[in-house]
Amino acid sequence: MQHRILGRTGRDVSLIGLGTWQLGADWGEVSEADARAVLDASAAAGVTFFDTADVYGDGRSESLIGAWRRDHPDAEVTVATKMGRRVDQVPENYVLENFRAWTDRSRRNLGVETLDLVQLHCPPTAVYSDDAVFDALDTLVDDGAIANYGVSVERVDEALTAIARPGVATVQIILNAFRLKPLDRVLPAAREAGVGIIARVPLASGLLSGRYTHDTVFAANDHRSFNRHGEAFDQGETFSGVDYDEGVEAAREFSALAERHGLAPAAAALAWVSQIPGVSSVIPGARSVSQAESNAAAGSIPDLGEEFTASVREIYDRRFREAIHSKW
Predict the structure, then answer these.
(1) For 144-196, where are the alpha helices, taking DSSP H only?
(2) pLDDT per position as a tens digit, 277-301
(3) Per-residue pLDDT reduced to its tens digit, 296-315
(4) Tens digit of pLDDT for each residue in 241-287?
(5) Which stretches within 50-207 are classed as H helix?
(6) Which of 8, 58, 215, 328 has an alpha carbon 20 to 30 Å from 81's alpha carbon atom?
(7) 309, 34 in Cβ contact below 8 A?
(8) pTM: predicted TM-score of the whole model, two decimal places
């Protein structure tokens, strides 16, 4: 497993991390035993970065990680959580009093005095320009409640605004072979500022695994059923916001590209994102031990080279660029 420095946190983390949305909610049922097995398998495979949020299963994901850490007190794992989605999404709710309450709850769930990294969880756009918000986050650092803070964003302009703030350690953003827009401005700006980039939705909600067809049916409580058009939260979080049927066709092309390089599609997709200069960690989710192990293995795949990247860009430009660039 390769490692990178996680932006301004200065922490050394695995290039492939673990996103734990699946262990909380919105991806169908995952039992506690299966969730613990995923955490075990990820750590055994060299993963040292877990990403969670206080709303994943209303704290279930955090609590599972907290219990796992108690059972593995010597594990050198950095845990990032997120806050802000437990209230109405208006800028007025992003204040120190709420930050204290949210971080106190996360500290209890995770069983720690100081949270490694707390990210604002895709807040309203106006929040990124509010000095008082970042003053409040600085206060939490000074108080020892959090060690570092960052942001999780939906849009490029939000990322650029956050990167300009000196206290922001990381930016989490959707980045995959079907969402290349951040490569144009966000990653160069982050590299120059020393801000870490956490790449989420790296498999486009599973599309890039090449396993789905036009007829695939997802569970009713899976966001890939109920949020395809942004009914519950930003559409970009589901299949990266691309049209599902168009995504299936593009995934077939990507699968053929991966196979020409002797790789499974999911492994190639994760390796390609992880090899982008400026990416600190990629956080695919997993619902099983086999998924966790195969995800982690992508962190040791040799450089895929310029021809692979050119092919990825060609698929993206032909199928998705116009729609993605007009929305995000």
Answers:
(1) 156-163, 186-193
(2) 999 999 999 989 999 999 999 999 9
(3) 999 999 999 999 999 999 99
(4) 899 999 899 999 999 999 999 999 999 999 999 999 999 999 999 98
(5) 60-71, 96-110, 131-143, 156-163, 186-193
(6) 328
(7) no
(8) 0.94
Q: Tell me the Cα Rg of the chain.
A: 18
- Location of structure tokens 């695939």: 216
Phi and psi at residue 196, in whole multiples of 5°? -75, 150
Decide the pairing of beta strands 49-51 and 18-19: parallel
Which residues lie closer than 8 Å to 247 by C-beta, 6 or more apart? 178, 204, 207, 239, 240
- Quote the tokens at residue 328: 């995000």
Neighbouring-strand partners of residue 19: 51, 285
Q: What does the pLDDT look like over 191-243, one tens digit per residue?
A: 999 999 999 999 998 899 999 999 999 888 888 988 888 888 888 888 888 99
For 172, the token pair is: 């989490």
> Residue 213 in 3-state DSSP?
coil
For 316, the token pair is 């993206």
How many helices (H) and strands (E) are present in the chain, helices listed first? 12, 10
What gap in Å lies between CA 53 and CA 286, rounded to an integer? 15
Contacts of 284 (CB under 8 A, 6+ apart): 16, 18, 19, 202, 203, 266, 270, 295
Instruction: Compute how many other C-beta atoms are within 10 angstroms of the C-beta atom of residue 192.
Output: 10
DSSP string computed for 161-173: HHHTSTTEEEEEE
- Indicate whether 59 pLDDT > 80: yes
